């Protein structure tokens, strides 16, 4: 099979997924949610010189749209942590890329795309506290509504959108590695 033949199948599949997807949250609604989130963060942290850590890869789009809405001085870094390392069950937190900006004594904000079960996010929060952060808060674009949270009662400090318990993609969340760039929040038909 030539490379062209191999690439044609995923392209057709990805186009079909998007053409048939349910739009759960429009781009406009996402933008308004980010405005609300930015207002809340500005109120709480605008005088704290916080450091924002983008959780890669999903948090990239949310971080990129959120930070320009914040009219105060802040630092930005990123991290890439996983608990899976090629397995289907999570274990100990593994840093693919650990943060470079020190957290000790700082007001830390972890930015991610979605709070689903939250096991990795909970482990990242523990890491930040152990690193001596003055405070740790989370800014998550979407909270998926279900009762399977890794830590009972786990909630994001800043979150303006909720979605039903469906597989979702767009605005940072992927479908088989694709469509993080979709303008809004979508769910594949039947999922």
TrEMBL record:
A UniProt-annotated Pfam family: Pribosyltran
Molecular function (Gene Ontology), one example: glycosyltransferase activity
Keyword Transferase: yes
Catalyzed chemical reaction(s): IMP + diphosphate = hypoxanthine + 5-phospho-alpha-D-ribose 1-diphosphate; GMP + diphosphate = guanine + 5-phospho-alpha-D-ribose 1-diphosphate
Name of this chain's protein: Hypoxanthine-guanine phosphoribosyltransferase
Gene source species: Halomonas mongoliensis
Swiss-Prot/TrEMBL keywords: Glycosyltransferase, Transferase
InterPro entries listed in its UniProt record: HGPRT, PRTase-like, PRTase_dom
EC numbers, comma separated: 2.4.2.8
Superkingdom, taxonomy of origin: Bacteria
Phosphoribosyltransferase domain mapped to chain residues: 27-162
Keyword Transferase: yes
């Amino acid at each position: 099979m030539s490379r062209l033949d191999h690439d044609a199948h995923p392209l057709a599949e990805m186009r079909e997924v998007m053409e048939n997807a349910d739009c759960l949250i429009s781009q406009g609604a996402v933008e308004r949610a980010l405005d609300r989130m930015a207002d809340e963060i500005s109120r709480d942290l605008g005088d704290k010189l916080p450091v924002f850590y983008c959780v890669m890869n999903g948090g990239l789009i949310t971080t990129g749209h959120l930070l320009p809405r914040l009219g105060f001085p802040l630092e930005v870094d990123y991290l890439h942590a996983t608990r899976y390392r090629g397995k289907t069950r999570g274990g100990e937190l593994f840093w693919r890329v650990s943060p470079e900006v020190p957290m000790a004594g700082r007001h830390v904000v972890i930015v991610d795309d979605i709070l689903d079960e939250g096991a990795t996010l909970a482990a990242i929060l523990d890491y930040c506290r152990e690193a001596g952060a003055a405070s740790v808060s989370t800014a998550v674009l979407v909270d998926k509504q279900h009762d399977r949270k890794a830590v009972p009662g786990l909630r994001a400090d800043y979150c303006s959108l909720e979605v039903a318990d469906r597989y979702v993609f767009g605005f940072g969340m992927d479908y088989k590695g694709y469509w993080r760039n979709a303008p809004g929040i979508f769910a594949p038909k039947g999922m």
